[in-house]
Amino acid sequence: MRRPRVGNRSTLTDGDVRVIRWRVKKGDNRLEIAQEYGVSKQTIDKIHWGHTFAHVQDNPEDELESLELNDPIMQNAADESAEKLMEIMKKRGLM
User: Fold this and answer.
1) Which of 31, 60, 26, 57 is nearest to 44 (CA)?
2) Is 13 left (phi over 0), alpha (psi -120 to 50) or beta?
3) Are 37 and 12 in contact (CB under 8 A)?
4) How far apart are CA 40 and CA 52, in angstroms?
5) Number of C-alpha atoms within 13 angstroms, CB side, residue 91?
6) What angle do CA 89, 34, 38 make, to 5 degrees?
7) Which segments of the chain does DSSP mark as H helices, in order?
C-alpha cells in the first residue's frame, strides 16, 4: 500500500513517475493506476501530459547523462538508481 498523502507534498518518487508514464503509454487503465498509487486520476493525467513532474526524465539513462559521471561516487549512485528502478519494474511485472 502506498504512503498516505501529507498536505500538498507528493508521495510519488521520480521512479514512480517513470513507471506511471510507461504504464499509461502501454495502455493500462489510468484510474486503476491512480488507485494503486493513492492519487487521483487527474494526477495520473497531469503526469502523462507533462503538466506535473516535468523535471523527471522518461529514460533514467537520459537523466544519468547529465550527471558528472567521472566522479566514482556519482557513478556508483547512478548505477544504484538504475538498478533500483529495474528491480521495481520487475516486481510490478512491468518488464
Assistant:
1) 31
2) beta
3) yes
4) 13
5) 8
6) 95
7) 14-25, 30-37, 41-49, 60-65, 72-91
Global pTM?
A: 0.55
Q: How many Å apart are CA 79 and CA 38, to the nearest integer?
A: 29
| Residue for grid cell 488507485 | 35
- Here the cell at position 26 is 502501454
Question: What is the C-alpha separation between 70 and 24, in angstroms, rounded?
Answer: 35
Q: How far apart are CA 33 and CA 23, in angstroms?
A: 8
Give tens-digit pLDDT for 61-82. Answer: 555 555 555 566 666 666 777 7
Contact 30, 47 (CB under 8 A): no
Is residue 44 a contact partner of residue 33, using CB atoms and an 8 Å limit? yes
Which residue has cell 497531469?
A: 46
